[in-house]
Design a protein that fits this description.
four-stranded antiparallel beta sheet, globular, 3 domains, eight-stranded mixed beta sheet, alpha/beta, Rossmann fold
């Protein structure tokens, strides 16, 4: 695709709108597109790719270009990330810009290797935490995987369709659709264009959901007739997976403190064909709606609010918007949510604690603190639970589930399966 000056200027304008980093990049970019309705689909695709490439590699680009302004960073991304030749940009950008880009490229050829945190475009504090947790080799492999663009995964709604049939439909319409290697209900797409308008989404046959998230929902082993709670339901991806596993029988509560997030669940719920889901807006984890269910629930999922470090392939702006001081605040909140959710579980019932974080402060440490301070609970082997459903995982140390992008092709996830002792 040949570039035009208008496309480059549009990408620079979009990046300038995103870079204050006052809200999530995808939301800022959607707002920018709404303000520029005349852009065609190809132009929008280029703008989105260029903006997210810049965000993923921003620290390295600042080092290579010695620029921090949106235009300098965007032009640097064209050359150093997206592989555009400087000469091919003549006539598209200013002559002075082709000059300093050529000089930057020449400097790179003779420069010593970059420090790992710069090369991987990670904040120093985050790289240091990954090294402390996983060791330098594994941490650098994780960092490299987080620079890649994530695939688009779907979960087939087994209440309405079979995976093979949905794959056949997508392939007939030109999509490169493949079964996910781990989840028995997942489909992986490389080409994301036009999917949001496709019938498989519009009619509820499938929902967008990362394969790792699908595996977390499988740890619940939700069944027909149970009482189940999704304690931090959000927009409901795991809620819908649980409802389908229950074959729309029993009672499934979807709790969340955000009215906006629950509103986003409603259209998805209508499409799904599920009748057993009951969204509930709660003020906090100690809401009376929560307390009235104490000791009555068969299985509770706590998909806890977290740093999101496991999703940096999809949300690269997060690494520039988060700070290390927030981790302790999050851990305090996570411990409180886990403690409140545990009160719902009946004797012999199950609780799955999950995050999309790569950091032990939000994962193992939270679970250990809960087990140390709460009598009558034990840990189940998450890998054995998945194996009983036909999912075999490598490179995971039981009893907890730990998914890493470079090893499993999913977002980074942690999950612990806890069981309340029968009385």
């Amino acid at each position: 695709m040949e570039l035009t000056r208008a496309q480059v200027d549009a990408a620079v304008g979009a990046l300038a709108a995103v870079l204050p980093l006052e809200r999530p990049a995808d939301a800022a970019l959607r707002a920018w597109f709404r303000a520029h309705p005349k852009l065609g689909s190809r132009d929008r695709g280029f703008v989105a790719d260029a903006v997210f490439a810049t965000l993923r590699h921003m620290r390295r680009l600042e080092h290579l270009t010695a620029r921090r302004d949106p235009r300098g960073l965007l032009l640097g991304a064209l050359v150093f990330v997206l592989g555009r030749q400087v000469g091919a940009l003549r006539g598209v950008i200013r002559d002075t810009e082709t000059g300093w880009l050529a000089e930057a490229k020449a400097r790179q050829a003779d420069a010593p290797p970059l420090p790992d945190d710069v090369r991987l475009s990670l904040p120093p504090w985050l790289h240091a935490r990954l090294v402390a947790t996983y060791g330098p080799v594994q941490a650098n492999a994780i960092g490299a995987s987080l620079l890649e663009s994530a695939p688009l995964d779907l979960r087939v709604n087994t209440l309405l369709a079979r995976r093979d049939d949905v794959i056949a439909t997508l392939r007939a319409d030109g999509f490169d659709a493949q079964p996910t290697p781990l989840s028995p209900t997942g489909i992986r797409l490389r080409d994301k264009g036009g999917l949001e308008r496709h019938d498989v989404i519009a009619t509820g046959l499938a929902e967008v959901q990362d394969e790792g998230s699908q595996l977390v929902a499988m740890l619940m082993q939700a069944r027909r007739g149970q009482m189940v709670v999704d304690f931090c339901a959000g927009a409901g991806g795991k809620t819908l997976a649980l409802g389908a596993a229950m074959r729309s029988e029993g009672r499934l509560y979807a709790f969340d403190t955000s009215e906006r997030r629950l509103a986003n669940l409603k259209p998805r719920l209508r499409r799904s064909g599920l009748s057993n889901v009951h969204p509930q807006l709660i003020a906090s984890e100690n809401d009376t709606r929560v307390k009235r269910l104490a000791g009555r629930i068969d299985a509770v999922l706590v998909d806890a609010p977290c740093s999101g470090t496991g999703t940096l392939r999809r949300n690269p702006d997060l690494k520039w918007r988060m700070h290390p001081g927030a981790l302790e605040e999050l851990a305090t909140k996570q411990r409180a949510i886990l403690q409140a959710a545990a009160r719902l579980v009946r004797p012999g019932g199950r609780l799955v604690y999950a995050t999309c974080s790569l950091l032990p402060e939000e994962n193992e440490n939270v679970v250990s603190a809960f087990l140390d301070g709460t009598a009558g609970w034990c840990t189940r082997d998450a890998l054995a639970i998945l194996a009983s459903q036909g999912v075999t995982l490598e490179h995971v140390t039981p009893p907890c589930l730990g998914l890493l992008p470079h090893l499993h092709g999913t977002d980074g996830f942690f999950a612990a399966v806890l069981e309340r002792e029968a009385s």
